[in-house]
Amino acid sequence: MQMFVALADSGSFRGAARNLNISQSALSIAISQLESALEVVLFDRTTRSISLSPIGRDFLGPVRRILADLDHTLGDIEAVADGRKGSVTVACLFSVATRVMPAILRDLRAEAPGVTVTVQDATTHEIVRRVARGEADIGICGEVDLEETLRFEPLVEDHFDAVLPRGHPLAGEASITWAALIAHPIVAMAAGTQMREQMDKALQERKIRLIPVIEAWHDAILTELVRLGVGATALPALVGADQGGEVIRRPLTDPVVKRIVGVVTSRRQSLSPAASLLLDRLVHTLTPDGIVARLGGPAGAQDG
Length: 304
What we know:
Strand content: 15-25%
Number of strands: 13
CATH architecture of the largest domain: 3-Layer(aba) Sandwich
């Protein structure tokens, strides 16, 4: 079809062959084969000239559209293949969705504006389920036991901090023990969340029992409760607690409770180029030195 259009535009086998960088005989054979396959005459030939037949003229417009559509389709495929186009769904913890993803998505938008990203915030267990069901390409969550079809790549070692309202009796301490923290009213993540499971497991080993006055499924609720003075809480360093100076953070010790945050992907299905591009940016952001980053702990203590 490309040869047919080239010959129709040129009006001569010599000119069309030169434009196509092929021999005249190869072009002549291709046109004859096309006419034989269609069982029509596309060109009227004389010893001195060649011109489109009436059927050829009717055929030319649709062929141009077909070739234009094909070029567009091939261009789209090439764009998808090199990550410039495509769609990615990321299921991640709320803290990652709000503190990490926006900057990554900004940079990705500048590099590959044709890539569409959907960000879903969920709990670790729900994130794992979505990746396993193919509802998300990438999951960003805490380390958890996985089925054989999934893989986990650690990125961040995240320590739990005490999150306190201004004026709390422990606010002047450089670091706080868990026993001291729970001696005061405390609000905490609800039972069944991975953060609560991690805290409970670590505290049970020290025979420390956590009895919250309020439980919630979302860390944003806890930080607002802290700001209002309802109680203190414990949250990983990756979880933001910026309340305009009304909330402060202190490292929690005895025991030091930590979690590993990483990426969950499927072993059964390879990532698309767009998803791989997003994952590369995510890994570079959280592990700029090529090692598992460490957040929180005594060195990472700061006011909120």
